[in-house]
């Protein structure tokens, strides 16, 4: 493996933003490891014979043993980049697991600590997928969207906030990507970007209504995985049209 090829661990990449980011990362020739409760969801899209750079591990993002496997390269080092796009599924007015992201973040950080305690080294950049609507520094969604977020996103949003805090306070290199309301279908629309420092607040703002899962995932891969500008490191980054 040459030095310009990265190793990237994916959690939650069987659909949506994570899947789009995985596709882009594989297309660029990088080594990817994906944790999936049902590996067939990925192997049907990426057959092993035509996708040698992808390793799929069966398991849950709350299982420290499975997560630890996903964080290690074949050379017994910690991966270069970690992409976590796990999230809860809607269930009526709430979601199936209101703690999915906070538990996932805790497990991931515990797994890193456990690996390092055994002598396995590495300083990965962690990318966590969150949502707009819950900034501590003022409104980051259109006014007309506030009731929708209060009704339908309040519970998963609170979970995302805890996840953000755990990564920000971990001492690890991180970027939180906050997508506006996610829709299906790629586009050629311009993606606007806002940057917020978790401690001091907004450095630039981008307030919008939607972005597609495909475009958000592509932006994530192109700007946070394939390369990363220092202005995004240890920041919360909003992406929207």
The termini sit apart by 37 Å
List segments where confidence is low: pLDDT < 50 over at least 5 consecutive residues.
none
* Assembly category: single chain
Mean pLDDT: 96
Number of separate helices: 6
The biggest beta sheet is recorded as: 9 strands, mixed
Strand order of the largest sheet: 3-2-1-4-7-8-13-10-11
Rough outline: globular
Give the C-alpha Rg. Answer: 17 Å
- Give the strand content: 15-25%
Structural class: alpha/beta
**SSE run:** EHEHEHEEEHEHEEEEEHE
Counting DSSP E segments of at least 2 residues, the number of strands comes to 13
The portion of residues assigned to helices is: 25-40%
Plain-language structure description:
The chain is an alpha/beta fold and 241 residues long. The chain is 32% helix and 25% strand. The strands form 3 sheets. Strands 3-2-1-4-7-8-13-10-11 form a 9-stranded mixed β-sheet, sandwiched between helices. Strand 10 and strand 11 (201-204) form a beta hairpin. The longest helix has 23 residues, at 146-168. The N and C termini lie far apart (37 Å). The relative contact order is 0.16. Residues 1-20 form the signal peptide.
Brief characterization of the structure:
About 30% of the residues lie in helices and about 25% in strands. By secondary structure, it is α/β, with parallel strands linked by helices.
């Amino acid at each position: 493996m040459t030095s310009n090829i990265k190793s990237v661990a994916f959690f939650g990449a069987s659909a949506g933003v994570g899947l789009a980011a995985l596709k882009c990362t594989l297309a660029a020739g990088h080594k990817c490891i994906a944790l999936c409760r049902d590996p067939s969801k990925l192997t049907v899209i990426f057959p092993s014979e035509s996708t040698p750079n992808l390793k799929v591990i069966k398991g849950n993002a709350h299982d420290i043993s499975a997560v630890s496997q996903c964080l290690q390269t074949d050379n017994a080092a910690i991966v270069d980049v970690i992409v976590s796009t796990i999230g809860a599924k809607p269930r009526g007015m709430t979601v199936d697991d209101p703690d999915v992201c906070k538990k996932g973040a805790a497990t991931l950080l515990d797994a890193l600590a456990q690996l390092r305690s055994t002598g396995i080294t590495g300083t990965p950049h962690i990318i966590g997928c969150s949502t707009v609507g819950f900034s501590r520094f003022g409104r980051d969604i259109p006014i007309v969207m506030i009731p929708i977020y209060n009704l339908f996103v309040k519970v998963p949003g609170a979970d995302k906030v805890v996840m953000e805090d755990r990564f920000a306070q971990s001492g690890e290199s991180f970027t939180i990507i906050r997508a506006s309301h996610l829709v299906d279908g790629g586009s050629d629309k311009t993606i606007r970007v806002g940057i917020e420092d978790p401690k001091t607040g907004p450095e630039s703002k981008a307030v919008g209504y939607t972005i597609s899962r495909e475009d958000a995932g592509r932006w994530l891969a192109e700007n946070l995985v394939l390369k990363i500008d220092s202005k995004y490191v240890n920041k919360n980054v909003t992406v929207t049209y």
